[in-house]
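Hey,

Quick one before I head out. I ran the complex with shikimate-3-phosphate overnight. Inputs first:
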Amino acid sequence: MTNGRLPHHGLVKKPEIGFSLLAANIDLSMKTESQAIIRPARNVRGSVHLPGDKSISHRYAMLAGIAEGPSRLENYSTGADCASTLVCMRALGVAWQRKEGNVVEAQGRDLSLAVPAGPLDCGNSGSTMRMLSGIVAAQRFTSEMIGDESLSRRPMERVIQPLSAMGAQIASREGKPPLRITGSGLKAIDYKMPVASAQVKSCLLFAGLFADGETRVEEPLRTRDHGEVALRAFGAQLERKGNEVRLRGGQHLRGIEARIPGDLSSAAFFLCAAALFPGSQLIIPNLLMNPTRARLLDILAQMGLRISVTQLDEVHGELVGSLQVEGGRLIGATIAGADSAALIDEIPVLAAIAPYTEQGIEVRDARELRVKESDRIAAVASNLRLMGAQVEERDDGLKIPGGQTLHGAELDSFGDHRIAMAFSVAALRAQGETLIRGAEAVAISYPAFFQTLEEVAER
Ligand code: S3P
């Protein structure tokens, strides 16, 4: 990979685009359309080293910016989304450098950011816009937050409403970006979140750091807790009781030195690829195992994947382990209720492999998937149908029978990284080649995805 070309295994790209070039640069603009061709595989074997977790990278970058003193973040996510967070932090006066080995070194500004010279460009990243809005809402200046076409369609009322109740003034385009946030001295809030969203929870806890009084946030279902864990790692005190978190305002943070564990939602694509082949074997070292994220491992184990975890460790409050998996049977599953919230980022790939399972997969209570980077329920149904699968699309999920044979087809990523990766995995077991348009979307969370997939796919 010296000339920006991809190795000519199962992947061909037209027009020429180097995923490695995207990975190396921080400006991952993804302006050039590319397509990937995935050939079927016989098996999946090898080891996969994943970039740092996206959810943790965003939060560490934001908290490093408002902490006192320097932070050093190793294995920072290579994705364009986390680069968007860094770009916004720089616009807010945070000095940072990106070094060899995906290390980010940042100099914190102890809660007080600088007036940005222009709009804060969140790119495709809902996490950046929602979580950072909690921080800029407490700064005594006006920030404009903008995003790409996909982000501009996503709901922001969920942060606008509680942040306004805390005292910020926020203008939007009918609850959608761009957001124009005029910060002020915030007052604490006692807030029962109507939507189960870890981004909203983190946004409000970050805002609560600056607020007068104790902020209390209650979530309808337990969502990922990286915001709480990261706040503690940076020295804040907070209390959790059941689904409720309390945080006292006026606390200062201090910078940290941390190594970010491998992204479990990116691992999901390889775990599902391994699940497709009896006799597959994968090793994934340094993987995030946070219990609020690891439900996928239980589901895949129930479906027949043999999983063992070695070298379990805790780093800054996050569980990290090495995973060994072996493919066996692939039974099927029902994902509903709290599981749908816990698996929200992994449902597209589980649904994409569903036709190859024995009993199929049913997904319920996952309406949130319709307002992600794309309408992921519609995108999954459309691509599966193009591959010849029978699918029932529902308002809040999908029902996909098992025991189906799929054929290669021309698919679309819908500009959504997780759709591009999910169908690259489904293509491994299809008959014939699959072409995925808009393949450059993988750079949002995992620029090296195709190279890694080619390394582990045996043909
Ligand atoms: C995330 C939470 C989830 C998830 C997103 C990352 C986070 O979104 O889909 O990819 O880092 O908190 P919601 O909070 O909107 O459910």
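Confidence is low (pLDDT under 50) at residues 1-28.

Talk tomorrow,
K.
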